[in-house]
């Protein structure tokens, strides 16, 4: 009995660290009801939800609300490290990257043919990635007023999504800010949905990583709602599969490289300490149990 008690004490001593690890886990998939349909909005790896109760988050939310117009906001997220820095730095003016999922009822009915819907929602020929990148590098569109979007170019249209690059002006934290957006229009069953990546405009080259991320967001959205994932060639991921591509693409984005934090530098030591510390506590418990065992 004393031995079991010692084991319980050792395990209890590890609970605070376990809670810390759980606190860093992904937020759950959000399910929303739209016109009688349930749509699952997944959490991209390394992203956290914007919280309207956070004053700094509210600045981003208010600015983006003026852009969505008649679209219903389903979910808004930012990279967790960027969002944490934005909340902490009250003097920071430039917005952080935001991914938002919108219900775009204004685009019309999907019916049973998503590909036809996409041609209707985003007409015209796709210019391709290289041409749109070239166009974006020529500078931010002139004459754009706050709250408005300007289309830079249609990058691609497939049977899954139509993806275009856009520029937008938004008032965030009292400043008029130039944003660049990759807007992916798709449909979950009969429900038209937009997955949109927005970040401050630098020189247009950011469209490269934004497009890769947009592909990931669309794939996650569709696979969360029962369609095959193209990341895994139509099969479910195995335990030994590498992490999805948005983890890799986030490492290449510029100009804001992720600053390594405490857990990046010390994660291995913490894990080793947990193992050694747990073993040591168990050993101490066993010795204590033997010494306290009553003589026969």
From TrEMBL:
Residues 1-21 form the signal peptide. The chain crosses the membrane at residues 268-289. Keywords: Membrane, Signal, Transmembrane, Transmembrane helix. Residues 225-260 are annotated as: Disordered. This is Secreted protein. It comes from Vineibacter terrae. The lineage of its organism: Bacteria, Pseudomonadati, Pseudomonadota, Alphaproteobacteria, Hyphomicrobiales.
